[in-house]
Amino acid sequence: MIVTVINQKGGVGKTTTSVNLSYYLSKEKKTGLLDLDPEGGATISYGMKRELKELPLGEKSVNIFNVEVFPAHIGLLKLELNGDVEEISNKIKEIGKQFDFLVIDTPPNLGTLAISAMLVADRIVSPVTPQPLALEAIKNLDSRLKSIGKNAYSFTNFSKKVVKLDNLSSVKFTEITIPPSRLFIEASRLGVPALRYEEVRIKKPKLANYYQQLAKVISE
């Protein structure tokens, strides 16, 4: 199953979702994480560095915490500007066949790489925060999803209050809310998923419960 995590608005926890969802899924399923964001946020969050050389998509991967991580590299910039959507989509499909779940972290836009990842996705997930610009981004995403015949699940990130919007045809809002936590910031600094950090530091982990809910929605 290919799970694409997307939102054209930065700062809503897109990469945080990709990193921790992939870590959670890897507990029971063969899981990969494909970092399509040229900035390499997901790559860095798994303790790696963005490759400073151009690589064929999916050529290099490193197994970290039982997640097969395909790091971001400088060639993604070229694909974003000049890549062919069909070719990229087909390559993502090939990579996805290796796993029970392939989680894709996308750039904070609706460009070539994001569209390619949405077209081949079995599930699309979009975190949202209760901010005007984030909500506007969800409306734009809804329009784009409608144009390509896809649907997405949205959940509230970094907030205790559920966010919902009416009159959207392709984005389904769930009741899932993932509250803010200092663990996300601390884990990011160390280059580990927050769930992993919590397992080591906290006697009674709580964050895993939220990603369990998200994984359940995705798997339905």
UniProtKB/TrEMBL annotation:
Residue intervals of the AAA domain: 2-151
Binding site for ADP: 11-16, 157, 179, 181, 188
GO molecular function terms noted in the UniProt entry: metal ion binding; nucleotide binding
Sequence positions that bind Mg(2+) 2: 15, 37
Region forming the signal peptide: none
InterPro entries attached to this UniProt entry: AAA_dom, DNA_Partitioning_ATPase, P-loop_NTPase
Residues that coordinate or bind Mg(2+) 3: 15, 37, 105
Keyword flag Nucleotide-binding: yes
Keyword Ubl conjugation: no
Keyword vocabulary terms for this entry: Metal-binding, Nucleotide-binding
Binding site for Mg(2+) 1: 15
PANTHER family linked to this entry: COBYRINIC ACID AC-DIAMIDE SYNTHASE, P-LOOP CONTAINING NUCLEOSIDE TRIPHOSPHATE HYDROLASE
Stated name of the protein: SOJ protein (Soj)
